[in-house]
Amino acid sequence: MGDYYDAPSWFQGSAWKILEAKGDYSIFLKGAELAGYKPIMNGNSILTIMAPDDKAFSEYLSKHGYSDISEVNTSELQKLIGFHLLYYSYNKDKLVNFRPEGDLATDEEKEKNAGMYYKFRTRSSNTPTVEIEASTGRRRTVYHLDRFIPVFSSRFFQTKTLDAASNYNYFYPNTIWKGDEGFNVSNAAVNEYGILADNGYIYTVDQVLEPLETIYTKMKTNGNYSIFSNLYDQNTSYVYDATLSKDYGTSLGADSLFIHTHGSDLPAIAVEWYSTKYADVADNASKAYSVFAPSDDAMNKFFDDYWEQGGYESLSDVDALAMKYLLKQFVYPDGIVFPEEIKSGKVKNVYDMNFNFDPDKVTDKSMCVNGVFYGLNTIDTPLLFGSVVGPAFRNKNNNYYLYMLAGAGLIVSYSSQDTKYVLLMPSNEIIQSEGISLRTYADGSRLQQETEDGLADVSTSVMRDVVNLHTVTGVQSLKETGTQILATQMGFNYLFVKDGNITTSAAYTQLLEPDNNVNPFVSFSEIKNGNASWNNGKTYSYGGDKLFKAEDGDGLKHRLAVCNDSRYVYYQFAKLLQKSGMVTSNDAILDLIGTSHFISFIPTNQAISDAISAGKIPGMNSSGTVTSASQLRQYLLNYIIRDKENAIVAYPYPGSDMKSATYISANGNPLIYTDNGSSITININGESANVVSTYNYFPFAFNDGCFQLINTVL
């Protein structure tokens, strides 16, 4: 940390002697001597002292039921007096605007985050505790680091652009804010600044400094928050610390010392320091946490209003991942939060959503050694839980999809309040139809699927594809009557709605199969949030027993290349491709090799047959004999547009993102595409054709291309 003591050119004596000479600090000095701190105050160490006078100490002792400081047991006295003794020596300027860069900080550097390095290490700590690790049943000796004390300077509040007095008094209502010309230190105002001793600085304060506890201790010892606290504790982990074990293990009679944390997903609110590394001066001086803990009454009411409606029987029955997301709604990992910041909407949780509570209605609030604690008597449904992904959090029969959303990393994206969504949500049974199961292990639950190599986690890419296929933007709802084509968040995959039923573009291609007797459409129904929709759109369940999936077959290129069955709607066009020499021996189409996506407007079988008979197909006579393969090839390419020449962002249908425009056919000729709103027309070489309405303008969409049938050749 460096030496922050400004060595004086002359000496006034040790801090002990100066306070002794003042005459009205006898109780503080007696306590320091009983606690064993007299040697360091008398010159054996460089330090900064916050000294309460006898009047302040007498009031403190009376408040806590003591008639004399000698009645306080040694460990408590060490904790109390140690909280007044700061490591290193700080003059007023350094306490107002401490710089982790040290004395070499430039004027420009001093203005950066001025006053925000507000915590200073003291000699106060709790004795180690022995705790039982739930997952192993082992006893762990937990080391408690020295307390940091908050020094709230005028620069601190200026940098935060907050009113100093009202925000300070929110946490310290019994202390007068006197820090406009300097600072208040935790719960005390400063009477006299920077008395210079030969081993540091003394600041006299108007109250005894109450040792701050961790957020965890504050919450754990308040019986009103036992549910939230116990749920938080389900994520407890004990981390072995080699440095602490080496430095202090022997003296404490322990081979191993541990730090009590709460895993990687939740802030470590049981640890006194933000970072357990001594060298992390800047982080430990500036960073902290804020926890907004719902009371037991608030948690129980939330269960009644939310989870019980989704089929859960008790809080202990609620899915662990859903509960972890709820816990994270109420923690802020990036610093201490003041009431003015809550009211102004400046502070957002880890899901980029505002904390939505009134700090004026909070009765339990505390400044803590590692942040601040707010106790909430009521909670509104968090925005995340009230969004279109809400049913995955609420409904027991949709919790598999919660793991899909989380695994895909899309929960926050699809809970955004800036966009309206329509989201399909499959039931657990539908997801299980794919051989996917939710399995629980010591480190949590995850979706898994049987593979050739045995059981394996469902990949992130698979989960992302499923979620994106089930999500639509830019529409208000699914139509109960008529038809509707919806572009999903998975490119070139669509949802088709017809008369209150729904299917995917991938499933719809089954209708092309001559022997198909399967109706690809299934029913759907809205999953409501009580009697209303969700805060950013609508969510629907769907029937059937299969999960909606994207197109994963051989693609349209292959279908056209190998088609030899006259019952296919594209048979005649496929035969022309073959006769033109465009189809290779390995079933590729020459002019589509290297094309990622293409669109073809294919004349119906009848239209092509009639055109052949009439001799209207270039390069072919009326008997169907090819007279010029190259001429036929160039003609057929009129009906194809490729992403080589065009920006293909969507497949064609009325209302598609494929807009009316002139596109370049695969042979270089212009193809004029017109979306008429309820129909589609194309024009090639001055002749027009209409997309047939037989299939409700639903495009036959594949992973490499799409076709629409037109009523005539051009």
UniProtKB/TrEMBL annotation:
Looking up Gene3D superfamilies in the UniProt record yields:
FAS1 domain
What's this protein's name?
Fasciclin
User: What Pfam families does the annotation carry?
Assistant: Fasciclin
Record organism: Prevotella herbatica
Specify the FAS1 domain's residue ranges.
12-209
SUPFAM superfamilies linked: FAS1 domain (SSF82153)
Q: Which residues form a coiled coil?
A: none
